[in-house]
Amino acid sequence: xxxxxxxxxxxxxxxxxxxxxxxxxxxxxxxxxxxxxxxxxxxxxxxxxxxxxxxxxxxxxxxxxxxxxxxxxxxxxxxxxxxxxxxxxxxxxxxxxxxxxxxxxxxxxxxxxxxxxxxxxxxxxxxxxxxxxxxxxxxxxxxxxxxxxxxxxxxx
Length: 156
Prior knowledge:
With 156 residues, this protein is an all-alpha fold. The chain is 79% helix and 0% strand.
């Protein structure tokens, strides 16, 4: 909902210039995905040891690089199904790391909420798989979220 409204402006003003800069620096789409993943996984120890501001910063950086990997791949004509799969797997790894970090920071208070968040990921992944079985992708993107109530911006 939010993302569809503001994404074109962010693409034009922020994401495309940053992606072009990464291309000029000869950073590959895989390097961008790796950076996003490492930044996201770093949230686990940061959140679990109570460094909340740093955890949020690293989560934000992870999200930024997660947006940029596809843009770099498209700019360099290096989009692949394997890259898209790695991006999706990396996203789930980061989500799991964030939830585990939150849980470890206060296990007594956050056990049920952590379990519910992990359950929601399982439900979403299952629904994506089922829909993917019966859908044909005709877009430039390997993976497309249909417009809905909650997208990347709201999830963050």
